[in-house]
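Key idea: predict the complex, not the pieces.
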Amino acid sequence: MMMEDLEQNTARRKRRDAIFAVVGLLATLVGMITLAALIIDLAVDGIGRLSYNFFTAFPSRFASQAGILTAWVGTSLVMLVTAITAVPMGIAAGVYLEEYAPKNWLTAMIEINIANLAGVPSIIYGLMALGLFVYQLKLGQSILTAGFTLALLILPIVIVATRESIRAIPNSIREAAYALGATKWRTTRDHVIPYSTGGILTGVIIALSRAIGETAPLITIGALTFIAFLPDSPITSEFPFISFQWLMSPFTVLPIQMFNWVSRPQQEFHLNAAAAGLVLMVMTLAMNGIAIYFRYRYRKRIKW
Amino acid sequence: MANNPAKPEATYPSVRELSVQSDFAGFNLQRVRERIIEFVLFLAAMSSVAITLGIVGILLYESEQFFTHVSIVEFLTDTQWTVLFAEPRYGIMPLVTGTLVTSITALVVALPLGTVVAIYLSEYANHTVREILKPALEMLSAVPTVVFGYFALLFLTPLLQRFLPNLPGFNMLSAGIVIGIMIIPYISSLSEDAIKAVPVTIREGSYAMGATRLQTALKVLIPSAFSGIASAYVLGFSRAVGETMIVAIAAGQQPNLTLNPMEGAATITTYIVQVSLGDLPHGSIAYQSIFAAGLMLMLMTLAFNIGGYFLRKKFREIYE
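Result:
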């Protein structure tokens, strides 16, 4: 009698354990199925609109003639400013916190602060940029402002990635450099940073893929939703051949263009939105794929 | 001995002295350079503090302008938010309820799923399955939110309408569900880290008592890792509260004081987007109102983070 009870109990528990193994897999698949449904949905709706013309046409009142030329040019230029700003700053901050920072209240405050910034909603960065960059610093609703805004947004991601990959370098490497008489900066420049490049690169790519999809902060700073001209060319025919006028141009970006199309009631514009979404998805997924590949390759290659 | 002329070589510095001297000069220069570099790196790290100060400063400064026109009591108690109308009313309540309803819908989806996924990936899945599922799940958090918004409005809402015929085209339910799916990876990966951090000895102790994996997970691992799991939940909530584009696209942008997810409503974030899309003159009340709304959003996330902090402190388990 007792034995039977026990056996039943054990069998029941084992059954529940087996059921949970299935439930767990299904729960994990919910996300994947959503992702698949989303990509298929976008592809079914949008693939018909993807043509050479779609990439080279300005937006238009007529859905079938509208294209994403201004949007992808805007996205590329904003990303350029973002990368140039956020990457050196993030790496420098990460290097400082790992290699230089003394253990004191100031360092602790910086660390807590970075952790908190990662949790601040992106639209708040947009409000800050609107008040500070657009009106206080009078940078206007320009590509420069947008690039700075997104740079601040992804700064914590770059810092955390830098710190993590620096932390993986064993101390013996640093000590070997010091033993040969290298200064701290020489050690950092010639050893610590080169050896952590893989991890930093992964983090930077992921951060930029996040920035490409950001919409809300750029709408907040006043990006245009309908724009039928390109920024000034960065290369000019006259001396000094390089112009920075484009930094001050008004702009739109891909996700805003998509938002604009999806908010219209007409069905035809929804197809355009799907096509723009498809382009966005290909860009972000490709960037994430590259990042995962880098991570995998560097993890495999480096054995201390 | 000092004036002994028999030692002429003493007037010239020896080779050794020379090299020490030049080394010393070089050392000084190098030291200055090292200090300058350290200072530059320090400034980069301090930039994060400057960002925080900038955010808080701008929000407070512009909100203060707003609150010279609108009393805080009206802001917090009025039930209408009609800033852009001819007779404006400034009650933030409808935006707050919209934000809460979408976020809670998202959490109802994401907390159970995220926790189950975390247990599954850390305790059940074998190495190969993990290596495939984890990056695939992380892809979910890489999808631009505007694409999720498209999905919620044009895929999920029509799907839900088959089962709920009364569901309007713009509703918080569909937006909330999609936000929930979007934040699963955040919750699962942080919870998984927390579960993994529980010492092996505790896990083995449970197995030695004859517990199954499920019993170990539910009765030993989750209680032990609860402080970490709670931070994952708090982060998930912050994401949901701050989510903008999904709600702006799929839930309509009409302020609506309701707790019913089947209706459409505006959230704090969608209000900010809606106002920013128009061309508002700098310094007008409507312009200042988005900063007051942003301040409210920050305070909500802050309150929840502080709550989470105390929750974590209460449940923290410390292992030697």
